Structure formats: structure tokens, C-alpha cells
Amino acid sequence: MTNILWLAPKLNMYKLNLLSVFSQHGDISLRVLVGEIGSDVRNKLANEKIKYTLVDVPKRRFGVSMRVRREIKRVLKSDHFDWIMLPAEKKNFPLLYYLKLVLGNQGPMLFSYNHENFKSDVLWRALDKYLSRKFYSSLDKVIFYTEEAMSSAVH
């Protein structure tokens, strides 16, 4: 059984649908640490078999929140995880470095599921590309939404 801790600053319908697919896979166990829950998701959550922990933190503060860090530490002490999914976003750099510090070379591996680069105005594309590669190089695995995104990110 593969145990995954999925960090979700905001749980919206497309993420919930993806998590549902993962949870239906017999050898994957999911625990989701959620900051905000989208209004369209609340009703559907009652029917899901995924274990959720809600930390009442706005999406934009999720990566820097002490409450989120404490909850991650508590969850990591209570369960064994093979993987931690951290969204690759600029605002999650502090959380990435916190996880690297807490986990060291032991424990769960870090991965992300995302676009090829961070998104900003046209003016900041070169910086976004650099920061994206910096973030990805700190992870154990990166899963891209599309094969084209993967090819573009690798080159």
C-alpha cells in the first residue's frame, strides 16, 4: 500500500475528482490536508472515502502558515507516508523548505502535480521559468498535466 499525504491549499472540484480516482485505486491510501474548500466541493465531500484534515487557512497563506506546519508535523507523527504532494507554486517555497528541513533525507518523498512553469505576467516569464526549475529540483518527482508540458519543462 502506498500512503500519500496530499497538501491542498484549496480543494476544488477538479482536485476532488482526481483524488477520487486515486482513492479508488486499491493500493493507494490518501490523506488530504486542506486549507480552503471550494463551495462546489462541500456537498460532494460527504460521499468521498478519502480522509481529510481541514486547517482553516486561506489559500494564499497556506505556504507560510504556522498552523499548517503544526498540522503537517502532527499528521507525520501519527501516520507513515511514502509520498507528500506539494503544489508547485511560488507561495509554497517556504513550505517546501520547511518539509525539506523536517524530513531531511528520511521519510516521505516529495512530488508535485502541475503545469510546466509558474504563471505570471509576460514580464516575469524568465523568472517564473527559473523559479519553477528551482522548485522542481527540490522535489523527488514531478508529474505534469500533459506530455507537452513535461517536454517543455525538461528542455
| Whole-angstrom Rg | 15 Å
Helical content (DSSP H or I, runs of 4+):
25-40%
What does the largest sheet look like? 6 strands, parallel
SSE order, as H and E?
EHEHEHEHEHEH
**Average residue pLDDT:** 89
State the total count of DSSP E strands: 6
Strand content: 15-25%
Count the DSSP helices. 6
Unreliable stretches (pLDDT < 50, length at least 5) are: none
What's the N-to-C terminus distance?
Answer: 34 Å
Query: Judging from the principal axes of the Cα atoms, what is the shape?
Result: globular
Q: Walk across the major sheet and give the strand order.
A: 3-2-1-4-5-6
Strand-pairing-aware structural class: alpha/beta
Describe this structure in words.
39% of the residues lie in helices and 24% in strands. It has helices spanning 13-24, 42-45, 66-78, 93-103, 125-137, 147-154; strands at residues 2-11, 28-37, 51-54, 83-85, 109-114, 141-144. It is globular.
